[in-house]
């Protein structure tokens, strides 16, 4: 899993990218980052519930020009704050290019309508401070970790201490 380290004029935040579950969308984003596409791009949309950027014109009407297919998957949802999704034209689900957004609240109404491809895992307070016109200064990608999972152990019954029998 790559981590995108996004430096803005308001601070830095990190996005975990879900390459395994959203390969088309994530590859598109990584390709744009590697080309330096997002350097200097403004946040053109800032509302109580969302911030959006990725339009080189700064109007919300532009993009990279390369459209990608809508990619949705069960479990990739906007049910929690700080989900990262690809913006698209309202009437064309397969029109995402370079614009992406980050939700500041749970936005279940977006589920199945927009490609969710990552989550802000550090620097959420930076997202909350972003204002219209703020800029992305740079995005760096960490090396892939090779894992998209976490292990949770639940101990049902502790193993008895053998020394307790000696007492």
Task: Describe the overall structure.
- The protein has 167 residues and is an alpha+beta fold.
- It has one domain (3-166): Beta Barrel (Cyclophilin), CATH 2.40.100.10.
- Helices cover 11% and strands 25% of the residues.
- The protein has two helices and eight strands; from the N terminus they run ββαβββββαβ.
- The protein has helices at 23-34, 124-129; strands spanning 3-8, 11-17, 43-46, 50-53, 83-86, 100-103, 116-122, 136-141.
- Strands 3-4-6-5-7-2-1-8 form an eight-stranded antiparallel β-sheet.
- Strand 1 (3-8) and strand 2 (11-17) form a beta hairpin.
- The radius of gyration is 19 Å and the shape is globular.
- The termini are far apart.
- Mean pLDDT is 91; it is low at 148-153.
What's the number of extended β-strand segments?
A: 8
Averaging pLDDT over every residue, what do you get? 91
Fold-level CATH name: Cyclophilin
SSE ordering: EEHEEEEEHE
What is the CATH level 1 assignment? Mainly Beta
Rounded radius of gyration (Å): 19 Å
Looking at this structure, what is the CATH superfamily?
Cyclophilin-like
> What strand line-up does the widest sheet have?
3-4-6-5-7-2-1-8
Low-confidence stretches: 148-153
Keywords:
alpha+beta; 8 strands; eight-stranded antiparallel beta sheet; 167 residues; Cyclophilin
Give the arrangement of secondary structure elements.
Layout: E1 3-8, E2 11-17, H1 23-34, E3 43-46, E4 50-53, E5 83-86, E6 100-103, E7 116-122, H2 124-129, E8 136-141
Antiparallel strand pairs: 1-2, 1-8, 2-7, 3-4, 4-6, 5-6, 5-7
Question: What's the gist of this structure?
Answer:
Helix content is 11%, strand content 25%. By secondary structure, it is an alpha+beta fold.
């Amino acid at each position: 899993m790559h981590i995108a380290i996004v430096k803005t004029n308001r601070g830095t935040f990190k996005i975990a990218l879900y390459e395994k579950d959203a390969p088309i969308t994530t590859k598109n984003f990584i390709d744009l980052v590697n080309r330096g596409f997002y350097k200097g791009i403004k946040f053109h949309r800032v509302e109580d519930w969302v911030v959006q950027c990725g339009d080189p014109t700064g109007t919300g009407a532009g993009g990279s020009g390369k459209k990608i297919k809508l990619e949705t998957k069960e479990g990739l949802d906007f049910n929690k704050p700080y989900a990262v999704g690809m913006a698209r034209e309202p009437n064309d689900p397969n029109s995402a290019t370079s614009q992406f957004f980050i939700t500041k609240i749970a936005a279940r109404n977006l589920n199945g309508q927009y490609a969710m491809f990552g989550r802000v895992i550090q620097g959420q307070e930076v997202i909350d401070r972003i204002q219209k016109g703020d800029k992305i200064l740079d995005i760096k990608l960490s090396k892939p970790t090779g894992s998209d999972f976490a292990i949770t152990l639940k101990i049902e019954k502790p193993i008895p201490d053998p020394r307790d029998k000696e007492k």
